[in-house]
Structure formats: C-alpha cells, structure tokens
Amino acid sequence: MPQEPLAANKISFLGSGRIARALIQGLLKTESVAPHEIFVTSHSGVSAKHLAEELGVTAAMSNNEAIEAASMIILCTKPAQALATITTSQKSLANKLLLSMAAGIRSEDLFQAAGGKARIMRAMPNTSVRVGKGTIVLAPHPSTTPEDLLLVKKVFSACAALEEISEEKMDAVTALSGSGPAFALLFLEGLVEAGLQTGLDPKIARSLAAHTLEGAAALILQTEQSPQELRAEITSPNGTTAAGLRVLEEAGFKKIIEQAVKAARLRAQELAVTK
C-alpha cells in the first residue's frame, strides 16, 4: 500500500479525551510534530474545538475530514465506540495507518471494521507521555509494514519509552503500564499525606514524595540491580526503613498491587468480549 514520505506525515486523533490530550501535549513538548500537523475530532465537536484552541492544533469538522487530512490516524475513542467509528469511515481509511489506543479491542476486529483496507497497529500509552516520560507499547497487526513501525517509533520516541510485544500480551500491558501510573500516584498520595501528618509543609511533602519515586525508578532504569537488591541496600537491620517495610509486608502490600493489576487486566479482557 502506498505511503507518504516520513516528513510529509500529519496525524489525526479521532477522539479528544485524556489520552489524546496527553499524546498531543507530549508530541508538542518534544517538538516531534508541529501544531499545524495535528488534527482532532470528537463526537459532538465541542471537546475537539476546546482542545484545538488550548494546544494550537486543528479541529476537524468530521472524522472523515480528519482522516483524509493525515496519513497516521490515532483512534482515541472509548472502547465501546471504537469499531463503530472505524466502520463508518471505511472508505476514508483505505491505505491509512491506524494506531488504536482503544483498550481491549483486538486489531483483527479493527482491521475487519475498516474493510480490510487500513494498516492496523494497537498501542497502549500512559498519561506520562504528556511530560515526555511515558511508555507506549506497540502490537503491530500483520497488515502493517516495517516502515509503519519505524514511523511510529520516529514520531513517539521523544516522548515515550517504546516497547513492541505480541498482541496476546496487550491486556497485561494495559493493566501494568496503562493503569500503573494511577496505582503509583495513589502510593505517592499516601506518602504526601503521611508527610503532612508528621509535620511537613505541603509543598515540601509533595516535592519529597515525587522525587523519591522518580529516584527509585531511575535506580531501576540506570542500574542492572533488581528491586529486591536495591531495597536491601537501603534497609539497615532494625532501622527506620525496616520498621516501615514491616508494616507494608504485614498488610500484604505486594499482594494488593498484584491483585490491582490482575483486576485491571480482567477488565481489559471484558472490554474485548463485550465490544
């Protein structure tokens, strides 16, 4: 299928919700794409107009108009709306690259909804892409080409760490990295509140909690040590860290996190069944 040169690509977002906003913010922050190269739509048109005014991108009058204006189409609708959105735009999607962010919706279903004429790739970003610190996991459908994968990596590598997996693992990705930031933020919220309860100023508590989690993540990314090894380095016998860890272990902290991720994965699977 014919494709435009990389430099000529424009991007259209079908849907103007949180994920679309985060992706656009990340692209603009890292200057991966210029504002005039981005088009957005929404069901009523109102949220697309507001997003366009806020970020300096273009609000299209319809999905078909947005699709025809770009070579990469990013599906950011709610999962329940995904297949209907694609079905009604079959003709416009011919020979286009469709990158779907719809949790639980299989690429083969998207391919069939597009009349078998679009090139499909599933992706799962998280909202940290808005500040250039996110992750995007890609699962290409057989309809895509190596050039498609290179294009997606070229566009998004500045605002996210990119991983490629087989599609059957996408529900686990949705649960871990898609929902994971919310789980981490709940822990951070607890750290901040604990700081306030122990007498810290709110601004200081917020900064210390955020930088503490950022630093812990950096240790994992920049060393070859496991979380267990790094935790052991910090934990002196009978020290303050050991006292705190004992409380977390007695409460089943790790098991609770595992249960949260499994619940999120199950919901992703349910979305695929009830599409």
Notable characteristics:
disordered N terminus; Rossmann fold; elongated; ProC C-terminal domain-like fold; 275 residues; alpha/beta; single chain
Q: Can you walk me through this structure?
A:
There is one protein chain. Helix 2 (46-55) links the parallel strand 2 (38-41) and strand 3. Helices cover 54% and strands 13% of the residues. It is elongated and about 65 Å long. It has two domains: 6-165, NAD(P)-binding Rossmann-like Domain (Rossmann fold); 180-273, Orthogonal Bundle (ProC C-terminal domain-like fold). The longest helix is centred in the last third of the chain and has 21 residues, at 202-222. Helix 9 (180-197) crosses helix 10. With 275 residues, it is α/β, with parallel strands linked by helices. The chain contains 13 helices and eight strands. Strands 3-2-1-4-5-6-7-8 form an eight-stranded mixed sheet, with helices on both faces.
